[in-house]
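This is your field. Have a critical look at the following sequence-structure pair:

***
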Amino acid sequence: MTSPKRSARPARPSVAEYLAEAIFSGRYQPGDFVPKEIDLCEQFAINRSAVRSDLRQLVDLGIIARISGHGSKVRDYEEWNILDPTVTAWMTRYASPNPRIQREILAFRLDVEPYVAMMAASRAKALDLVAIETALEGMSGHLHGASAEERQRYSEHDVAFHVAIFKASHNIVWAQLSHILRPSIHLLVETSNDSTADPVASFERHRRVMEAIRTRQPREAFLAAREVLRGTAEALGIEPGDSTLGSWLELSQATD
């Protein structure tokens, strides 16, 4: 006689996930204290060691700091391990309402991606061009889709387009970063694509990047990539702030 199967024990509530959602969405800002351990124990009906374990995860990721006698305080964004896969996953799920995080990601992309596009225009091989063009064709195929699924597919091809350019730089650091940065890129791409007033113009900016890379024009690739990100900033209603972009433009203009 076979014994009855034991039912799977339900997973306990995740305090780390709850606090990550609250922090990344902006309900708790840097400098704010999150709820005390005892309050979290009562709220989630779990013991103190479980709460401390989840808080430790946030501490290890640089998101909160434990202050003896006071509780746990959200650290400044510069202290977060922003490239950790757990953090980027939380960012993708929860950060859309937080303009400061979006601004930080956009500023980083403004510093990096035009330069990467310039490198790709000098180094891309045939297979790289195929990957970039395939992603652009995928965007084209879903450009006029009205459904949420169509828009999601468009954004997925958009992200693939940017990742393919990172890989086409043929620099192992940028290529690896393309995997790490993918959730961050997806966060801005999906949000800006849903917000843009002129998706056709956005697509055309992407096409110009591809053409500059395909025709081996590094400066034009740099400038075209900059325009893509300016369009992203406009769609999000974000002023990205200072970046090293101005220095690169001065350099590129000096070589005309």
